[in-house]
Amino acid sequence: TLARNALFRVRRKARRRGGPAVALSDAPELERAAAEVRSATLTYLRTQVKDELALLREQLSPDDQAILILRVDRKLAWLDVARALAGEDDLPDDELVRSSARLRKRFGRIKAELKQKLETRPALRR
Fold first, then answer.
1. What is the reported pLDDT for 124?
2. What pLDDT is stored for residue 27 in this prediction?
3. DSSP states along 58-71
């Protein structure tokens, strides 16, 4: 039974695949595309972009820097970010939820500002 099921699986895979497999060496356009994908570094992973972003982050207000540190660097949840920035341990839940919503909105504005500043730098364009 095991051998028969294995045989059926192999036949089913062959039918799904369609035609015979083509080696990469027989398809130069695929080989070129694969080489390009392997060698191209995504924009946000480039060292130059990271360095520029670090410089821009240093220019932000201390409050904006704190939001970025807590949310991006430390990966805290929004309620935890709100608690940390409020400085009070016993905030009512409804106030904490409102504060986290304000922080999310502010974070969006910070991201948009940083993105706009990064895009205006000619050295960082692709």
1. 56
2. 74
3. HTS-HHHHHHHIII
Tokens matching residue 26: 């027989």
pLDDT value of residue 75: 95
In degrees to the nearest 10, what's the CA dihedral of 59, 65, 69, 75? -110
Same domain, 20 and 81: no
Q: Are residues 48 and 96 in the same domain?
A: yes
Six-digit token pair at 50?
Answer: 């990271």
**pLDDT of the residue at 81:** 95
69 phi, psi to nearest 5 deg: -65, -45
Residues 30 and 53 in one domain: no
Q: Looking at the structure, do residues 115 and 99 belong to the same domain, yes or no? A: yes
Model pTM?
Answer: 0.61
Q: What residues in the chain have per-residue pLDDT under 70? A: 18-25, 41-46, 122-126
Q: Which residues contact 24 (CB under 8 A, 6 or more apart)?
A: 30, 31, 34
Instruction: Write out the residue range of the structural domain in which residue 31 sits.
Output: 2-39
